[in-house]
Design goal:
Elements lengths: L7 E10 L4 E6 L12 E4 L2 E9 L2 E6 L1 H6 L10 E6 L18 E11 L2 E7 L13 E4 L2 E4 L2 E3 L2 E6 L1 H6 L10 E6 L1 H10 L3
Antiparallel strand pairs: 1-2, 1-6, 2-5, 3-4, 3-6, 4-5, 7-8, 7-13, 8-12, 9-10, 9-13, 11-12
Amino acid sequence: MFTGIVEETGEVVTFTETAEAYRLVLRAKVVQSDMSIGDSLACNGCCLTLVAVDGDLLSFDLLAQTVKLTSFAELKPGSKINLERSLAANARLGGHFVQGHIDAPGKIHTLEERGKDVYLRVSIPEGTGKYLAPKGSIAIDGISLTVAELHEDGFACWIIPHTREVTNLSQKAAGNTVNLEFDMLAKYLERLMAKE
């Protein structure tokens, strides 16, 4: 379980396909300080299991299905990646409950400064808009954000400049793919209300 409050942006060192799996190697300064093999780390919002540590290098194995359903296929050496360690039981919940289970990829439609703030509009796959509500929560690449506007093909959020600077949004532009995790309460409500 995570909160969507990014602790740091790591840097992709390599992302390769091996005979066994896809291997992602990241360089991190903050999160690696107290991580052990088997720990979970949200990487662009996707919960991954740490399989190797070498100084400030962290390695993860990814399933082909994970690569297919996320934006990881677009990663290259030097890409910034949002990192968050799993939530400690005694920690403050600064964002919202984020599971690290990506629901769908989204495409950035607009990412631009408007006045002193940053406007981010994301296009989403058909049929997923039902999980969004004005002032509701959304995790974009693991960043806990508030939905400001609903559109027929997606949604928009307003972002403070600090969030853009300290996350991978500093490298993003229109046309880029992002990982989306919709609010789990909406998904549970849909399941409860479904006719069986």
